[in-house]
Amino acid sequence: MDYMRNFPCISIILCLFAGIISSGLRGKAAMWVNTLLLVVNTVLSACTLTYTLTLNEPFVYVMGKFPAPWGNEIRAGVLESLMAFFFCVIMLLSMLGGKHKLADEVEEGKTYLYYVLTDLLLSSLLALIYTNDMFTAYVFVEINTIAACGLIMIRQNGRTIEAAVRYMIMSLLGSGMLLLGLCMLYDLTGHLLMSNMKESVAMIVADGSYEIPLIVAIVLMSVGLCIKSALFPFHAWLPDAYGYSTASSAAMLSSLVSKGYIFLLIKIIYRVIGFNVYHDTRIIDVLFLFGVMGMIFGSLSAIKENDVRRMIAYSSVAQIGYIYMGFGMGTQAGMIASVFHILSHAATKSLLFIAAIGLTDVSGGSRKFIELTGSGYRNKWAGVTFTVGALSMVGVPLFSGFISKLLFAQAAVQNHTKMLPALIVLGISTILNAIYFMKTVIRIYTPVGDAAYTSVTYKDIQSCAVVLVAFIVLNVILGISSQPVVDMIQQGLATFA
Amino acid sequence: MGPNLFINYGEAVAMLLFGIGFGNLLLQSNLIKKIIGLNIMDTAIYLFLAEKGYIARRIAPIIVDGIQDMDHYINPIPSGLVLTGIVVSVSVSALMLSLTIRLYKRYHTLDLDQISKQLKKEGL
After folding, report:
1. Average pLDDT, stretch A181-194?
2. Is A149 at the interface with chain B, CB within 8 A?
3. A145 Cβ under 8 Å from any chain B Cβ
4. Domain for residue A361, yes or no?
5. Which one in A378, A469, B16, B67 has a CA-CA gap of 20 to 30 Å to A225?
6. pLDDT, average across residues A150-163
7. In this structure, are strands A59-63 and A72-76 parallel, antiparallel, or unpaired?
8. What is the pTM of this model?
9. Contact A176 B41 (CB under 8 A)
10. Number of domains in chain A
């Protein structure tokens, strides 16, 4: 079983090589390479997950045989491999779900570039999850940004290029701050490996020296990653970027790219700074405040929106707010809720984007609500899937969204000072979610008299229907048998430090 | 604070430059000026790293005269980080410039606010 220690490294390198090979292939071949890569990576990360579960503790893979304080390391525990497995599954489903649209959305002869970018995106996500070295993390953050920018602008119209520019500007501000914070922390600790950094930080804190530089470094890194993951006041680029890019891009950007940065922040909190030190800096109160504001303002913007895809994009802002609110609780329970919400939101949001494409396709390609009337009857598969996603987002039992809301509420009760604001905002946000998602569901199931648009049958959308069913199954699994997943997260976080 | 600031004047300048670059990248509406801001910001971080990595009267750790004593050389890692950072920032600048060219060809302006206005007019 020990050969499984190589799997994390192999999966990252496979992605990089697949990207290089695909750049010399034609569209169709690149697509097969990409699908194969995603399947192989799903299997590899599933193997890593079972291996770490039997191992009961994380393992460290030394790159290039240089021992700890000098070399570069990969570290895989239960939490890391669970994330990697989930990201691979969701990416696979998103790519398959948007495949049939790609020919219309991407310029002829350039589809292979789309697959190259997807391969690189996966490699950077996996590296962000597994790496134990801060500077490697920074480099892969930048690779992630570039790949994501490419995925936005590959559909060439004015809107996407402008959205890509805005996305790049915000991302670069964020990564500049991350890099500066990282350099400061390196100067303070003298290490780049996360575990060594943590030891030095603990010594600095016990010493009482360098108090202000340490806080500055922590603030810079946290704010940088918050900007990159589109926390509330920094979300201006998000609706355009998610709303006008290709179907698969929107699904992947909303469910994976921002989650990669959030996972890096979790790693920094637990593995670099140390949870207690981070908690004592009070920056978590700021995260809590902005998370709570994001939950409300994101939902309000979504209610005002008249475009279904932009509405789902604004809903992402609210959901990112939930995750940061969980951080802000400052308890283990809050963190578990946040990590579960990362998974549940990733599964639901990609489902919603893929289903929304199915609905707009049978409405003459228009995304305005008025045109969507009755589209649930014209494309029954997408209609049902969208309804499932909407119910999950609102937090109806049976679906994954309910469990994450329950976990957030439980975490809130344990924290006396933040209990009241957290529960009130959770309630308001649920009502707001219900308003705009139920509005959409009612709209798509309102019958129209004259058949202006043709309906589709199972035969027309065979492959897409299979993906939609898989998404529903994933959501229901997360909703019904959430306990094993929560246990894994708990075990992972316990061995994370 | 006072004497420390004077001794570490290199770092202080680096922070000042970082602020200038950051402000330009955030607030300028001209895309080229934004990219210049980006480069100033990145370069400020490299200055900071180089300033931190250099120890007075020591040389780069390349052994030519057989001295293997550690006290003779500086720490090479910050320099390595600077090199990696430069590669990253070059690729990002290239991407930003190519996006700017695309936007200029389409809208004949470099002003991001005006481009947004034109997009609203198009009603896409």
Report:
1. 91
2. yes
3. yes
4. yes
5. B16
6. 86
7. antiparallel
8. 0.94
9. yes
10. 1
Number of domains in chain B: 1
Over residues B87-103, the mean pLDDT reads 93
Q: What is the DSSP string of A439-479?
A: HHHHHHTS--SS--S----TTTTHHHHHHHHHHHHHHHHHH
Tokens 């909703």 -> residue: A479
Domain assignment of residue A430, given as a range? 283-497
Shortest alpha-carbon distance between residue A183 and chain B (Å): 7
Give first-to-last CA distance, chain A, whole Å.
Answer: 25
- Assess if residue A160 is contained within a domain: no
Residue owning tokens 């810079």? A220
Instruction: Specify if A76 maps to a domain.
Output: no
Give CA torsion, residues A349, A353, A354, A360, to 10 deg: 150
**Cβ–Cβ contacts within 10 Å for residue B97, how many?**
13
The amino acid that residue A242 corresponds to is Y
The CATH number linked to B13 is 1.10.287.3510
Q: Which of A42, A15, A97 is nearest to A350 (CA)?
A: A97
Q: Do A161 and B102 touch (CB under 8 A)?
A: yes
- The answer to whether A412 and A422 have CB atoms below 8 angstroms apart is yes
By C-alpha distance, the chain A residue nearest B87 is A139
pLDDT tens by residue, A57-80: 888 888 888 887 888 889 999 999
Using 50, 70 and 90 to split pLDDT, how confident is the model at A451?
low
Beta bridge partners of A63: A72
And the tokens for A59? 């393992």
CA-CA distance, A291 to A141, in Å (whole number)? 22
In whole angstroms, what is the distance from residue B42 CA to residue A417 CA? 40
Binding-face residues of A in 197-256 toward B, CB within 8 A: 244
Confidence at residue B123, expressed as pLDDT on a 0 to 100 scale: 67
List C-alpha distances in Å: A89 to A50, A479, B60.
16, 17, 47
Instruction: Compare CB distances from A176 to B42, B78, B81 and report the shortest one's residue.
Output: B42
State how far the Cα of A96 lies from the Cα of A361, in Å rounded to an integer: 16
> Nearest CA of chain A to the CA of B109: how many Å?
12
Inside any domain, residue A204 = no
State how far the Cα of A322 lies from the Cα of A425, in Å rounded to an integer: 10
* Span A114-147, pLDDT tens digits: 999 999 999 999 999 999 999 999 999 999 999 9
- Any chain B CB within 8 A of the CB of A173? yes
Minimal Cβ distance to A169: which of B25, B81, B106: B25
Q: What is the C-alpha R_g of chain B?
A: 21
Closest by Cβ to A173, choosing from B25, B78, B88? B25
The ipTM is 0.94
Work out the average pLDDT over A313-332. Answer: 91
Q: Do A162 and B112 touch (CB under 8 A)?
A: yes
